[in-house]
Amino acid sequence: MTRREPVDGAGPQLALPTGLVHLSFIAAMEEFRAEGRGGDDDDTTLGRTLRDYGDKWHDPVVFERYVAEVRAATYPAEPLSVPVTTLWYADGADYFGRIAIRHNVNTRFLREYGGHIGYDVRPTARRRGHATAMLIGSLPYARALGLVSVLVTCDTDNTGSRKVIEAAGGAFEDERGGKLRYWIPTGA
């Protein structure tokens, strides 16, 4: 599948990370920080990213370097050394969220808890269907990577994420260590 650049005015869509969303991206990251993300105990990709870059993104050169790293799937915030395709959900210069597709789940942590796909929607854009659109929209990308189905997980108490996964066709497999595990066919 060809990854595309965002098209202004076409409505939110998944696309390669771009510098066009610089200001909106910074505002979104501040929203995440305001809800407590990025602290030392936040071991998520978003948490690590906020710690590594959060105070530096205002510099356009640093932001462009970050965008290039994410596009190249080399960003070190993914500590499991798994190739990742990251797409941002944006409408022109307006950033709404991101979705990361791990090309495989070749570690115990990913097989048990992390899964193939992770996503974040900025707090002010939640409850508008963006997460569901992002997850469904990511399935053709996963299919293009050769994945027949993808493992998507969420915390047992995250009702919103559970509903997103089920709306995208997730079939519940089991619960392990506080995570609900679902498999979603990619249509391959």
TrEMBL record:
The record ties this protein, via Gene3D superfamilies, to: 3.40.630.30
Query: Which InterPro entries does the entry mention?
Result: Acyl_CoA_acyltransferase, GNAT_dom
Q: Which residue spans traverse the membrane?
A: none
Q: Which residues form the N-acetyltransferase domain?
A: 95-169
- Top-rank taxon: Bacteria
- Database matches in SUPFAM superfamilies: Acyl-CoA N-acyltransferases (Nat) (SSF55729)
Kindly provide the name given to this protein in its UniProt entry: N-acetyltransferase domain-containing protein
- State the taxonomy lineage: Bacteria, Bacillati, Actinomycetota, Actinomycetes, Kitasatosporales
